[in-house]
Amino acid sequence: MHGQLQKVKCPLSGKNQSWLKDVAATDLCHCCKTPQPLRPDIVWFGEMPYQMEQCTDALMQADLFMSIGTSGQVYPAAGFVQIAAHAGAHTVELNMEASRGDFAEGYYGPAAKIVPVYLDTLS
Ligand SMILES: [Zn+2]
Q1: Which of 11, 31, 32, 92 is most deeply packed, by most CB within 10 A?
Q2: How much of the chain, in percent, has pLDDT values that exceed 70?
Q3: Which domains does the chain have, with CATH numbers?
Q4: Phi, psi dihedrals of residue 16, rounded to the nearest 5°
Q5: Is the bond preceding 40 in cis, omega lying within 30 degrees of 0?
Q6: Options 2, 30, 86, 90, the catalytic residue
Q7: Is 90 a catalytic residue?
Q8: Is 100 helix (H, G, I), strand (E, B) or coil?
Q9: What is the 3-state secondary structure (H, E, C) of 49-89?
Q10: Helix (H, G, I), strand (E, B), or coil: what is residue 5?
Q11: pLDDT per position as a tens digit, 77-109
Q12: Which residues have their alpha-adjacent CB atom under 5 A from ion ligand 1?
């Protein structure tokens, strides 16, 4: 949903392409009549994340929703827990500290420690 580091896109057409080196201000697209400076194909603050429909579909079908290592403060992702819970998923937060999200269950500490502990409870 946040894009791909190994791609760039044209800011005008939105077309993206594979790009495995740094993006320079002199790197231009080949898709526009007036070539545009390329930018990383990453969603920046204020832009709509990619594949929101697929994200929502997955949230609506989930039995378990886990939020790992996030402040839960940036929308639209911050609203994922409500969508999943409303659709019937069990919601779990694994984080350094409790966020403002309304989770059914929470485990707090470094993800490297608490994620394996939580996964053990599932088996
Ligand atoms: Zn272009």
Answers
A1: 92
A2: 100
A3: 3-42 (no CATH), 52-122 (3.40.50.1220)
A4: -115, 165
A5: no
A6: 2
A7: no
A8: coil
A9: CCCHHHHHHHHHHCCEEEEECCCCCCCCHHHHHHHHHHCCC
A10: strand
A11: 899 999 999 999 999 999 999 998 899 999 999
A12: 10, 12-13, 29, 31-32, 36
